[in-house]
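Dear colleague,

Thank you for sharing your sequence with our group. We've completed the structure prediction you requested, and as agreed, I am returning the results in plain text so they can be pasted directly into your records. Please verify that the sequence below matches your submission; if there's any discrepancy, let me know and we will rerun it promptly.
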Amino acid sequence: MNKKSSIKHLLAKLFFLISTTLVSNTTIAINNETLVETKNLVKAGNKFVTLLGTQVKIGDKAPNFKVVDENFSPVTLDNFIQQTTLISVVPSLDTGVCSIQTKRFNDEVANLPANVAMLTISNDLPFAQKRYCKTEKVNKLIVLSDAVWRDFGSKYGLLIKDMGLLTRAIFIIDEQGNIAYKELVDNISQHPNYEQALATIKALSVADTTLVNKNKAEIKTN
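Please find the predicted structure tokens below.
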């Protein structure tokens, strides 16, 4: 191994240790925090799991949250303000259903208006997400990690107790920042309703665009 490769390998190991420590400390912090527990909503196999965090409902103001991108840079919901935003939530990108779900929405980005943001969020570490996206050519939607702070999962009631994963779900947030659509998939091994989610975001994005154009016209007239 030459000197350059050795340094690169050392930096990679250091990065892994730091990121793992961050996740470990975060998990401890969450365990010490009192989170609302919700039961009898989602199953893993034949057994119900307990979800941690606050359940949100359609019509609620979407809670802001902080996650990280592939470089561990913070990303918040505010980054997508005035956009119709679909959030695809998966337990882990490297599993069968999660991979299909992610690739399906990635393929749909090209069919959506420019005012739509499409996100995938999981508790996979960012470098694992980056590897997956490169291997599977997922390059149109935005893949984000909740592994550092578990902020998204706790604010949307998605953390699976004793598993450290997010449950499978779909959320759509309109341009006004309200939750317009929610699907908490009954069993984490099942697929979400792709057709209904996509039909909803297409209808919302057209409606939001019409509303924006109408407001612009009124302002210009006045």
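Summary note from our side: Residues 3-32 form the longest helix (30 residues).

Kind regards,
the structure core
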